[in-house]
């Protein structure tokens, strides 16, 4: 009989949990999309340290070694017929067992063991008595995400079975149960923060965006990305990237304030701090409109007492004149690779010049050698031709006499030298009668005959 009653009770629990899903509304949860928490305008002087405050205790990261997320559910009773303050009935941690506080409640109050897996935190009272009447509250605490949710159910006990039932009074559920019958106080919340398990390092991320003046929000530039695992990524223009920073222990303190040091006039714009805790459902955005003012001028030194004059006789700057923005020219030193590139250009040009010079020298020597060979060939051809000296009249008087010591020439061989000496030496005039001296030249008739032809 006892076994049958227990089976009947758990079937009633399953029937109620599947038929009635009254989910409590979180008091501090935010929608999935980023919501603007604050928007402010801040002004800082140029050259000073600018700090844009962005803090949230819900983003504090604490390593969860037991993977229970510090979740707990407890049922409290207030407004009982016996009177007195509210008292704790039962509680249960996600990584522990349930605890029942009242001695009379042991074995009467039960919570589902799989509450943090299926999101069913309903309380089962086996045999209801008149002392059980009152206001019951189901309290869900998520210490990791700083979430606190509460659901109230009023229990009434009657002796009339026809009055048993449940209704809504506009604020909470009212459950009427016959005395001695089991009662199931429903509390169901199946949001992933109470059931799912994720790596907290991959669920927390913070990033800073910057919008230059006139740029819409959807075209903002990303400055920083911060992850709970310790990874950091820097973006943004080079002139601003080295001057912005967020504390190293940002996730330990929940302080993600952006520091800009030193502040420059070009840093004006709109800055946004985005906080995302995907596991806890936190999506917040804080907007800062940064204005950069002129640096405050230092007060002039006071006049020394007794002389009535200042230390400097030069007049101070006129405050009525508009002050222009100073321009600083920054010369970026060239890298070592640029030096080697220029050196390569110089060496290549020098090598090309040397090759061109060698080509000119070789061409000149080749041309000179070709001229000498042409002279030798021409002189060789003149040897084979017979010349009739009688047909040429040589006038020694017309030839200029040159002294051999005045002409110093270099000759290729002795034949050319002898010919040159013969050319400079005057030949004696000799009259030869060909008819008389024919015996001296036996070949002359044949030559004259061939020549006349």
Order of helices and strands: HEEEEEEHEEEEEEHEEEHEHEEEHHH
Separation of termini? 164 Å
How are the strands of the largest sheet arranged?
5-4-3-8-9-11-10
**Could you estimate the helical fraction of the residues in percent?**
10-25%
Give average pLDDT, whole number: 75
Residue runs with pLDDT of under 50 for 5 or more positions: 7-31, 304-313, 396-407
Strand content: 25-35%
The secondary-structure class comes to: alpha+beta
**What is the number of helical segments per DSSP (H or I, 4+ residues)?**
8
Total DSSP E strands: 19
The gyration radius over C-alpha positions equals: 57 Å
Q: Name the shape in a single word.
A: elongated
Main pleated-sheet profile: 7 strands, mixed
Give a brief rundown of this model.
It contains eight helices and 19 strands. It has helices at about 1-20, 115-120, 190-195, 240, 250-255, 335-385, 415-425, 445-450; strands spanning about 35-45, 50, 70-80, 85-95, 100, 110, 125, 135-140, 145-160, 165-170, 175-180, 185, 205-210, 220-225, 230-235, 245, 260, 270-275, 280-295.
Describe the structure.
- The structure is a single chain.
- The protein is an alpha+beta fold and 453 residues long.
- The longest helix has 48 residues, at 336-383.
- The chain has helices at residues 2-19, 115-118, 192-195, 238-241, 250-253, 336-383, 414-424, 444-452; strands at 35-45, 50-52, 71-78, 87-93, 98-100, 109-110, 123-125, 134-142, 147-158, 165-168, 173-178, 183-185, 204-211, 221-227, 232-234, 244-245, 258-260, 269-277, 282-293.
- It is built from eight helices and 19 strands.
- The strands form four sheets. It has a seven-stranded mixed sheet with strand order 5-4-3-8-9-11-10, with no helix packed on it. A six-stranded mixed sheet has the order 1-19-18-13-14-15, with no helix packed on it.
């Amino acid at each position: 009989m006892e076994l049958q009653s227990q089976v009947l009770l758990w079937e009633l629990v399953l029937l109620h949990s599947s038929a009635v899903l009254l989910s409590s509304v979180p008091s501090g949860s935010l929608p999935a999309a980023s919501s603007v928490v604050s928007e402010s305008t801040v002004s800082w002087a140029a050259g000073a340290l600018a700090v844009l405050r962005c803090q949230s205790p819900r983003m504090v990261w604490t390593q969860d070694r037991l993977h229970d997320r510090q979740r707990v559910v407890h049922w409290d009773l207030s407004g009982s017929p016996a009177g007195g303050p509210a008292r704790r009935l039962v509680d249960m941690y996600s990584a522990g067992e349930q605890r029942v506080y009242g001695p009379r409640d042991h074995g009467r109050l039960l919570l589902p063991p799989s509450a943090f897996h299926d999101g069913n935190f309903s309380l089962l009272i086996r045999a209801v008595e008149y002392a059980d009447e009152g206001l019951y509250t189901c309290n869900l605490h998520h210490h990791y995400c700083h979430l606190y949710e509460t659901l109230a159910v009023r229990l009434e006990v009657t002796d009339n079975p026809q009055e048993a039932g449940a209704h809504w009074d506009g604020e909470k559920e009212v459950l009427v149960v016959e005395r001695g019958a089991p009662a199931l106080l429903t509390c169901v919340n199946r949001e992933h923060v109470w059931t799912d398990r994720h790596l907290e390092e991959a669920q927390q991320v913070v990033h800073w965006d910057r919008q230059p003046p006139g740029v819409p929000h959807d075209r903002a530039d990303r400055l920083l990305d911060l992850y709970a695992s310790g990874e950091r990524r820097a973006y943004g223009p080079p002139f601003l990237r080295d001057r912005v920073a967020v504390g190293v222990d940002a996730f330990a303190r929940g302080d993600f304030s952006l520091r800009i040091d030193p502040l420059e006039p070009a840093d004006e714009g709109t800055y946004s701090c985005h906080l995302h805790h995907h596991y806890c459902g936190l999506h917040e955005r804080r907007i800062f409109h940064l204005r950069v003012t002129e640096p405050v001028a230092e007060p002039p030194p006071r006049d020394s007492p007794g002389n009535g004059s200042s230390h400097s006789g030069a007049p101070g700057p006129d405050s009525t004149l508009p002050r222009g923005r100073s321009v600083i020219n920054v010369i970026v030193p060239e890298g070592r690779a640029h030096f080697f590139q220029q050196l390569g250009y110089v060496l290549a040009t020098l090598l090309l010049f040397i090759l061109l010079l060698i080509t000119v020298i070789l061409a000149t020597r080749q041309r000179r050698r070709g001229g000498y060979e042409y002279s030798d060939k021409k002189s060789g051809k003149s040897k084979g031709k017979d010349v009739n000296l009688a047909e040429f009249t040589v006038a020694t008087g017309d030839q200029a006499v040159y002294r051999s010591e005045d002409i110093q020439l270099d000759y290729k061989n002795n034949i050319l030298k002898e010919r040159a000496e013969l050319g400079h030496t005057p030949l004696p005039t000799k009259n030869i009668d060909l008819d008389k001296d024919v015996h001296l030249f036996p070949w002359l008739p044949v030559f004259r005959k061939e020549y006349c032809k």
